[in-house]
Amino acid sequence: MEASSKTKCTRNTLHNARLLKDIGLEADGRPMGYSEPDSFKAERRIRHLRRVLSARIPT
Q: Does the predicted model carry a pTM greater than 0.90?
């Protein structure tokens, strides 16, 4: 019974991914073919790195 439910879940996931692709979305819901500007990516990466480094506990 477990194997059949796993197969069913996999089919549903693939089916949903195909439907999203049909309407122009990636599997995670973002628009296909859209990429953010490099400056935005760099700012986000710096922001995350600063947060990680400031949260690190000095030992």
A: no
Determine phi and psi for 31, rounding to 5 degrees: -65, 145
Structural contact between residues 21 and 32, judged by C-beta atoms closer than 8 angstroms: yes
CA distance 58 to 42: 26
Instruction: Give the Cα separation of 21 and 26 in Å (integer).
Output: 6
Distance of CA 13 to the CA centre of its chain: 15
Helix (H) / strand (E) element for 54: namely helix 38-55
Each residue's pLDDT tens digit, 18-27: 888 888 888 7
Give the integer Cα–Cα distance in Å for 41 and 48: 11
Determine the residue type at 45. Answer: R
